[in-house]
């Protein structure tokens, strides 16, 4: 895969997101703004590059399992903390400030993008983390979160992705003792002893 094809895939991803970002800037609610869409950009970039044929570090199966686990862990931990801690937002709209879910999702996506494509080009990883950082800064600048909210969200996203790849590789890894299969009607899990 050439650099030209990678650039085309990233431009296609950006082109699909930009119209939505422009519309989102005029909304008055705390869940508005570019971060509503931008938080998903690293996730979209991961699958756009994979669909474009850019050779990543994982098969489709491993990428899907690990990214699904990453998103699940990230959202689960974030939601649980939001329901437990009840910190008021700086703009006073509700008491679900800690941690930043937008930032957690963006950093989890950037970590998945990094794990899949850092060997292709370190700039892909830099772009993913730059987008995630932009989401975090946007949440603070719009007065929706405190800095510690976005720092915790970033940590949750990164740690959830690390945990997801560890767990996912136990299930799908080539040297795994776990094997998962389906015949369309049932799911089988085999553990080699």
Textual characterization of the structure:
The chain has about 190 residues and is mainly alpha-helical. Helices cover about 65% and strands about 5% of the residues. It has helices spanning about 5-25, 35-40, 40-50, 60-85, 100-115, 120-140, 145-170, and strands at about 180, 185-190. The chain has a two-stranded antiparallel sheet. A hairpin with a 4-residue loop joins strand 1 and strand 2. The longest helix has 26 residues, at about 60-85.
Following the backbone from N to C, one meets helices and strands in this order, namely HHHHHHHEE
Largest sheet: number of strands, sense, barrel closure: 2 strands, antiparallel
Shape: globular
End-to-end CA span: 40 Å
Helical fraction: 55-70%
- Give the C-alpha Rg: 18 Å
Number of separate strands:
2
What does the average pLDDT come to?
A: 83
Count of alpha/pi helices: 7
Q: Which parts are unreliable, with pLDDT below 50 for 5 consecutive residues or more?
A: 16-30
Estimate the strand proportion. Answer: 5-15%
Q: By helix and strand content, what is the structural category? A: mainly alpha
Strand order of the largest sheet: 1-2
